[in-house]
Amino acid sequence: MVTVQAKLIFEGSEDKQRVLDLMRRWSSCMRYAYKRLLEGHKRNELKKQLQGIFNLNSRYVDDAIMKAKSILTSCKERGENPKKVVFGGRQLFEKLQKRHINGKAYKKLQLKWQEKRKGNLYSRGDRSKKGNLNTRIEIDEDCTRLRINVGEREYVYARIQPGWKIKDGRYIDRNQLLEAISICGQPYSVQLKLKSGVVYAYFAIEEVFPQPAITRANGVIGIDTNAYPRHVAWVETDEHGQLLGYGRIPMPELESGSFEKKEYYRWQYAHMIVQMAKEKQKAIVIESLSIKDRGRREDFSGRRSRRIRHYFGYRSLLEKVKLLAKREGIEVIEVNPAYTSVIGMLKYAPQFMVSKDVASSYVIARRGLGLRDRIPHNYMMFLGRLDVNELEELKEYVRKVVKNTYVRKKQLREIGRVIKFLQSLESEAERLSVPLDGTSTGSRGKNHNLWQVLKVAVVTPLSPERVLRDLSVLKSLLVSGQVGKTYKGASSCFLGQGLWLSQIPPAGAGKA
């Protein structure tokens, strides 16, 4: 939806008063309809009844019922009690109930609540009427006006004062938008609101996007958002998923500043990403974001977690990318972000010698093409050759090093689950032949994900105290199935791990 806000200037106080009276009656009609819907009345039953009670035409009444129904549905979806809805705002209402507020402050607060409660009017557009019948935009040589139906064939005209607006990160003239809305012949909705004695109008029209001309048939660009440090990693692939190029876009402007400043730069970065996809003739693949950075207690209460999510605005950035790409006719593919970082870290970062953020964007791009990422054979050889005692050693080792870290405790539980998984397999040959492609399926895999187990078993011994950034050390294991340089009789071979790792023979080695 494209929305344009504007201020209404009336020719006289009498015209303004007639519009305010219409807004008051419509608001009362909407509240009355809400109460009747709670009692189980139907729309057709209410429509004729409300026209007589509030002296409104059928279109206004129908819009009021529709608005009341949407509020009722929204309350039920949020799990709230619909009988406790406060029209005008619960927060303002509760402030008015506090006894320590009096005098001018109380009157100001009361006026604000009354305006939010009674100063509303909503009018839907109609395709058959080529716009909006009750509130119609009219373009004159001198100015743009809004014609408001206040009675039976009675109209009030108000001059629209739109000014300028930042749209998609660029300044545009709102008058041009209003003219385009009025002559396009598409239905547009108009909402009037009273704020501090001034009537504002909000014009909304549904945007029509062209059919995508740039699709995944030409290849894709995978986008991975990273809140800390703030940047976007991107990867370009062909239609078969082969890596063609990669890079990163740093975003230092999103570190601090006002909301308007950060919103402006989000639009600029979104334009940059879409322009790159347009030049390369590639579709865009993004994460289907409901990213939940829960903090240490997994309840979104961590101060650092809240600060990162607040300043970065990853969801807002990707929504802008989606919108701009649709306008340019570029296909946008959303994929499940689960385990993209882990797969990129273990599989593609050491293979292409890139950062884990770039590798994660490559996994996202491959998912957009419908490709699956299986665990490499040498990694499975590595897991398959660990017996139960060696996994217990690993578990005890990690527990001693990082016993107070929440994330590591979660990973320890994954190791415990894989112990049961290996115990359920009867022979070494069966361990190596089990097909594992990320998230395991069936009775053995319903309680754990082997990508996560592999991350703990391989990465944690290499870097137990901090996140591993340089993943080139994994290349020898990825290619040959062997980590580090082993020495006969040595008790440790690589960054402090115990005997369990030094005893692992390389992949393909025969039995003694």
Strand content: 15-25%
Q: Sketch the major β-sheet.
A: 7 strands, antiparallel
Report the count of strand segments: 14
Share of helical residues: 40-55%
- Parts with pLDDT < 50 across at least 5 consecutive residues: 291-301, 425-448, 483-512
Number of structurally distinct domains: 3
* Mean pLDDT over all positions: 76
Spatial strand sequence of the major β-sheet? 2-8-9-1-5-4-3
CA-based shape = elongated
Specify Rg, calculated over alpha carbons.
31 Å
Question: What structural class results from the helix and strand content?
Answer: alpha+beta
Ends distance:
70 Å
In DSSP terms, counting alpha (H) and pi (I) runs of 4 or more, how many helices? Answer: 18
Report what the structure shows:
By secondary structure, the protein is of the alpha+beta class. The protein has three domains: 2-205, no CATH class; 216-368, YqgF/RNase H-like domain (Nucleotidyltransferase, domain 5, 2-Layer Sandwich), CATH 3.30.420; 377-502, no CATH class. The protein has helices at 13-38, 43-54, 58-77, 90-96, 103-118, 174-183, 259-280, 303-312, 314-327, 340-352, 356-368, 377-384, 388-401, 406-423, 428-433, 450-462, 475-480, 499-502; strands at 2-10, 120-123, 135-139, 144-151, 154-161, 164-167, 170-173, 188-195, 198-205, 220-227, 230-237, 243-250, 283-287, 332-335. A seven-stranded antiparallel beta sheet has the order 2-8-9-1-5-4-3. The longest helix is centred in the first third of the chain and has 26 residues, at 13-38. The chain is elongated and about 85 Å long.
